[in-house]
Design a protein that fits this description.
By secondary structure, this protein is mainly α. The protein contains 15 helices and no strands. The radius of gyration is 19 Å and the shape is globular.
Length: about 230
Amino acid sequence: MMWKTVLITIFAAGVLADDFSQITAVVTSQCTKNNAEDKVPEVEAALRTFGNCLKGLVDLNVLKTEIEEAKPNGALDEVFKKYCDKSAQLKGCISSVLQGVRPCVGNEYANHINDAQNSTNQLIDFVCYKDGDRIALFIAEGGPECFQQKTENLKTCFLNLKQSFPTVESANNLSLVEKCAKVDEMTSCIVKSLEECSTPTPANMAESLIKFMRKDSPCHTALPVSIV
C-alpha cells in the first residue's frame, strides 16, 4: 500500500505543473497495467480538478513570501491559521482525487483508498492542531533547514525500508508484525537522523507525527512498541 500511496502522491503533485504531458504518460501506463485504458481521461480529469482545487487554496510562491515576511515578526502562527482554516476544503480535494484515481490503482490497492484518506486527514489534523501552531514552531525552529541538512540520511532511511519490500510478493510474505517492525526501523532512523540537528524541535515534531499516525494504524495493536 505504501508505494501505491506514493504513486498517488506523485500524480497529485504533478497536476500543479504547467506541463501535464509527464503525468499523462504515468496515468496511461498505470491504467494500462490495470486493464483500465478507457479510464485514462477520467483519471486525468480528476487530477486536473485536484490541481485546480489546490491552486485555489494556496499559491506556494505567495505562501513562501508570507512565511519569510512573518519570521522576523514572530507572526508565523497568523500565516498558518489562515491556511489551516481551509483544511476542510483541502480534505475534500484529497478525497475527490483519491476516488478519482481508484480505477487505475488496481483492485488490491483500491480497497485501501479509505486508509489513504484517513492517513491524509490525520496528517492535516496534526499540522493544523491549534490553528497551525505546530507547523509554525517547526519552521521558526529551523525544521526545513534541518531536513535539508539531513537529506542524504533520510534517503538512506527510506532506501533501507524499500529494500525490505523489493516486490509486492516479498511484502505479502511478511506478517503484519514483521511489516510494522520494518516501518518502525525506518521511523526510528528518521528521528535519530533529525536529532543531530542544532535544535530538538524537528526530531520531536517528526516523532510526534509518527506516533500520532501510528496510533490509528494496524501496527498500534499488532506491535505496540516505541519507535525509538
